[in-house]
Amino acid sequence: MLTDKLAKELKEVASNFIPANDLDDLTQEVFLYLLELPADKLQQLVADKQIKYYFIRLCKNNYFSKTSKYHYKYRKSVEKITFTDSKLHAEYIQYLKQDAVGLYFNTDIEDSDLIHNILAELYWYERELFKLYVLGKVKDRGYTYSTLSHKTGISRMSIYTTIKGVKRYVRKRLKEIRNDI
Known about the structure:
By secondary structure, this protein is mostly helical. The protein has ten helices and no strands. The protein has two domains: 4-75; 86-180, no CATH class.
């Protein structure tokens, strides 16, 4: 079993090759991993005096791997996009008036103000995510779901279902409004 003495000893070993600013978080993640192991395997590692080597290997793997829990939790930096950018909003309005309307909704350019009003009915998250999707620029192309996911930190599937729902809602509202006219 892991005792306080053993934990301190293992942390001291890790301090030899892990930078001080990452040491606490990394060792805590590794200790969590060790405690999630089956009890008999952990006891066997301690009894065979292999726990130190196993701990070192886990620390190195977690610290240097780009796919470890530790990396995603503490080290991965994500470029954040703010949803309240007035310049982005102005570009969005201009883009709607030019060609985004026809591209996404098969409508005339005169409907751009109508679509803008329909989008104003939506929840802010849906509206702003749609603006980013429509206006996003990556090498003179719009954002894909994946690139938007990387930029915002929102899952790709969540972005897909949100954009799909917004398109469906706008089409439905356009039909309703046109049938009333």
